[in-house]
Amino acid sequence: MTEQHHPGDGSDANRSGRSPATADQAPSRRRSPWRWYLDVPLIWKLGVALVLGVVVGLVVGPPVTVIEPLGEIFLRLLMMLVMPLILLTLISGVASVSPKTLGRVGGKIFVFYLVTTAFAISLGIGLALLISPGAGLTLTGDEEAEAQEAPGLAEVFTNIVPENIFTALSEGEILAVMFFAIIAGIALSYMQDSTDERLAGLASLLRRITEGGLEIIFLLIRGILQYSPIGVFALIAVAVGETGADALLPLAALTGVMYGGIALQIVVYTLILLVFRAQIGRFFKAAKEPMLTAFVTRSSGGTLPVSTQAAQQLGVRKSVYSFTLPFGATVNMDGTAIYVGAATVFVANVTGTELTLLQLVTIALVGVLASIGTAGVPGAGLIMLTMTVTSAGLPMAPVALVAGIDAILDMGRTMCNVTGDLVGTRIVAQTEEGMLVDGSTEDEPDEEPHTPGADP
Length: 456
Description:
The chain is mainly alpha-helical. The chain has a single domain, classed as Proton glutamate symport protein. The chain has helices at 7-16, 20-30, 33-39, 42-60, 68-95, 104-131, 143-146, 153-159, 165-171, 174-192, 197-243, 248-275, 280-297, 304-313, 318-331, 334-351, 357-373, 380-391, 399-404, 406-431. Helix 16 (334-351) packs antiparallel against helix 17 (357-373). It is globular and about 65 Å long. Pfam families: SDF. It is a multi-pass membrane protein. Residues 1-27, 433-456 are annotated as: Disordered. This is Dicarboxylate/amino acid:cation symporter.
């Protein structure tokens, strides 16, 4: 914008008394409505879209369905990215951990993250089944008819191994794509450490291609998130227009289930810390700042610098937290797991679907596996929800209701994610000799001067 003018032009005009207002007004005239829209925080845009959607839906009523294609485009954009996101994030994430690093610390923190995530999604499913937040709300149309019957248990495990990865990608077979991505990532990790220069060179090239593909996906996600207020407005307006005010109470119930689950998960973290004789007051004194930062920014990755400082205050060595915290920002999604479990049951309630035990197991399994490849950025939880809803054979239409309050739910679940990262880091450090220094807030001099995981 103003870079096209010489830097001294405005100041010279002010000193000589020549049209200072012209220099001041030029930037505002050149500021486009699109730039102004981009500068508004996404959470505010989604909040406004939610409120406007509810108001317009209540006022206009059923005729508001004329804007339904705007919401359908939003859902299609989300579905478009699910498969490439799973494939690229899992391959890149697994390959980033070299075979040599997969030692005691890596193994312990990985098990901790998976166990707590499995517990969290089970907690979300259990609370939602107990309360049934979507009961009594029915969307018009043929959504219920679209629900698919779940396959048998033997078929589920057999289908995890794909016959053709391209067929699995095109047909949306999530578990099969995850399986292929995990084993491909492990193979790429071993190739990187190969003594054969040709294999190592090919691995480096493949890693760069994968990371480049990820950057493309992240750019697309950011673009879709800019469109999301329009999609959310249309989806909420249509949903409320067709169902009336009946949609508001179930959404409030889902929010209550979500935050109730987060509160219980934090209680579980406290009990784990007590088992390992950690000082609860000291832990939460150090963790309160990253918890608040995560709540506001809704980004586990963006909170990493603050989480690193908290780990130092807890006396954790850099050789532990430099791996566990960045790894947790991608793998550990306890809050998101609660959200996914509760929201998937909400979708089933809305469509009148009685979830079978096999479907519940599938939801939990997909939720845990999807947490491995879900990036710690705002909006990723909505894509993870799309995965579980699809894997359970449920229709996507009710996800519109959840998308409308996603920003509100995202703040709490991100805070829970970051808290779990710090709890796991603290516990693993205590189980490793010399990795926890009580009362220390500084790195020990015998450690490496730099660790890649500690970069912002």
